[in-house]
């Protein structure tokens, strides 16, 4: 299973299905894997779409209807707490954003690898397998 970070969603939406786009090559190379979208990543994406226009926001809403968007649960919150505590104890909290930590916790809750254009944002999170692409 692959958990999609916001960067993947942005790149995939912009690529409009082009098989030459790096994000689509990365996804196609793992076509046997199911994908999930953390509700936090969906929210980040929809924020950006809404800033562009109402039309883009509505296009994004329809696009997300074709995705498996997973909620934040108590287990996600527990994972978030563990990750933040680990990062604070090891003086590494400055790297990922708060939303990135929630996305990572969601990925770990589902036993998923995380796909992102920015793997460095997630490298300090223990036990998270990260898939990057160019």
Summarize the structure.
The protein has 134 residues and is an alpha/beta fold.
- Number of domain modules: 1
Q: Rough shape?
A: globular
Series of secondary-structure elements, N-terminal to C-terminal:
EHHEHHEHHEE
Q: Number of DSSP strands?
A: 5
Read across the widest sheet, the strand sequence of neighbours is 3-2-1-4-5
Task: Note the total helix count.
Answer: 6
Query: In CATH terms, what is the fold-level topology?
Result: Rossmann fold
| CATH level 1 class label | Alpha Beta
Q: Work out the strand percent.
A: 5-15%
What CATH architecture label applies? Answer: 3-Layer(aba) Sandwich
| Helix proportion range | 40-55%
Description:
The chain has a five-stranded parallel sheet. It has a single domain (2-132), classed as 3-Layer(aba) Sandwich (Rossmann fold). It is 52% helix and 12% strand. It is an alpha/beta fold.
Features:
12% strand; globular; alpha/beta; Rossmann fold; 6 helices
Topology:
Elements (H helix, E strand, L loop, with lengths): L1 E3 L1 H10 L6 H7 L6 E4 H14 L1 H11 L4 E2 L3 H16 L8 H12 L3 E4 L13 E3 L2
Parallel strand pairs: 1-2, 1-4, 2-3, 4-5
Helix pairs in contact: 3-4, 3-6, 5-6
């Amino acid at each position: 299973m692959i958990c999609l970070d916001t960067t993947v969603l942005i790149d995939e939406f912009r690529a409009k299905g082009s098989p030459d786009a790096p994000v689509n090559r990365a996804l196609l190379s793992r076509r046997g894997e199911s994908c999930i979208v953390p509700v936090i990543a969906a929210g980040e994406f929809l924020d950006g779409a809404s800033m562009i226009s109402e039309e883009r926001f509505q296009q994004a809403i329809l696009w997300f209807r074709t995705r498996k968007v997973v909620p934040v649960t108590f287990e996600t919150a527990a994972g978030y707490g563990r990750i933040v505590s680990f990062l604070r104890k090891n003086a590494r909290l400055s790297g990922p954003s708060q939303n990135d930590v929630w996305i990572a916790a969601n990925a770990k809750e589902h036993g998923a690898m995380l796909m992102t254009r920015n793997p460095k944002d997630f490298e300090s999170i223990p036990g998270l397998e990260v898939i990057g692409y160019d």
